[in-house]
Amino acid sequence: MDRKYIKLLKSELNNRQMLFISGPRQVGKTTLVKQLIHKTPLNYFNWDNFEHREIILSGGKPIIEAVQANQLSKEKPIVVFDELHKYKDWKNWIKGFFDLYEHQIKIIVTGSARLDIFSKGGDSLMGRYFHYRLHPFSMREISADLNFEKKLQKLMMPKKNVLSQLLEFGGFPEPYLKANNRFSNRWHNLRQRQLIGEDIRDGTRIHEISQLELLAQLLLKQAGQVTNYTTLAKQIRVSVDTIRRWLDVLEGFYFCYRIKPWYKNITTALRKEPKTYLWDWSRIEDTGSKNENFVASHLLKYIHWLTDLGFGQYNLHYLRTKDQKEVDFLVTENNQPWFLVEVKSSHGQSLNKHLGWFQNKTKAKHAFQVVMDLPFVDVDCFAKTQPIKVPIESLLMKLV
To answer: Do residues 384 and 365 make contact, with C-beta atoms less than 8 angstroms apart?
Structure first.
């Protein structure tokens, strides 16, 4: 199954900037870029491959010769550097390589760690790259085409069984496409061992891997809850600062992500404690937590998509006050509230009265109570401004 990003990336290669493509391990980055260079496989260099590593460390000339960039051609060759961030001095290396050969080649850099974080410090890469974050499959990506020119997609009916298959097997390509429980269990266990036991162990200075694994297990059981660093520190028997540092690492390697509370214009709102969610929602056992994480991941993919494509600056928050008023999510556009989302498993649950209260306080244009068991309705929920119940498929098919 081809990713919908292919057409977008081809158009983006017309710019002078490098493309940085980051995302979780096994999300499909390598498959995606190999589709872009399927006629020229020698243009792919993986830092984990010893022979490729030797070529990279030999300097720019061997690479230019390997990809035949020094020959007359109608188009510049595309050169892909996979997992290059594992090279300690990668920022300076790619900066020098780009500055020397940008007129001869097009460059794509991919990685299973957050390249926007790893690009900070040292010589700046500012102005030399555009960053795209590759997410797992979503309902829209599986069911219909994407319009790269529109902020909201045209509403279309989703494919049959996509919702249930995504919830059960997650959005990572292999387990989703296999749709087999035994394969999925083995795949997810192996992925977590490789992520923590190899990627994080080799890419950081963390030696307490067993305790880091315990933290990952606790996050699995606490997905969607407010993150209490002190409680986690006591459970794992490390310092609060260590917990914060380890969460930064787990977030940097796409195991989890945190969203912060929104408190502007709400005097009693929580201000500091984030909520933590997982990139792989399929491993969450509690149905309510899984549903909330599922929606959070779709919203995160959406705000990253809009931001990466240049529509503006989009962020995801949650809302909670000290007197227990709460709404699951708030999407902001250029630091202004845009729409609220409350997640409910059953249509029998009444409309959350806090939706209207928070909509009034934040001045958000839309307020949706997303319901997991309501069938798709072919009506644009973004045409409504009052708090309203919306089938999950009707909302997600408007996103990406």
So the answer is: no
CATH of the domain at 76: 3.40.50.300
Query: For 280, what's the count of Cα atoms within 13 Å in the CB-facing half-sphere?
Result: 28
Residue 300: name the closest of 179, 117, 135 by CA: 135
> And the tokens for 224?
């969607």
Which residue(s) pair with 159 in the sheet?
none
Q: How far apart are CA 256 and CA 220, in angstroms?
A: 9
- Stretch among 122-126, 169-173, 287-291, 376-380 having the lowest mean pLDDT: 122-126
What is the 3-state secondary structure of 201-266?
HHHCCCCCHHHHHHHHHHHHHCCCCECCHHHHHHHHCCCHHHHHHHHHHHHHCCCEEEEEECCCCC
User: Which residues constitute the domain of residue 250?
Assistant: 139-396
Structure tokens at 169: 């097997």
Determine the residue type at 141.
E
Cα(307)–Cα(135) distance, integer angstroms: 14
Number of H helices, E strands in the chain: 17, 12
- Each residue of 258-293: pLDDT tens digit? 999 999 989 888 888 999 999 999 999 999 999 999
pTM over 0.85: yes
* Same-domain check for residues 58 and 187: no
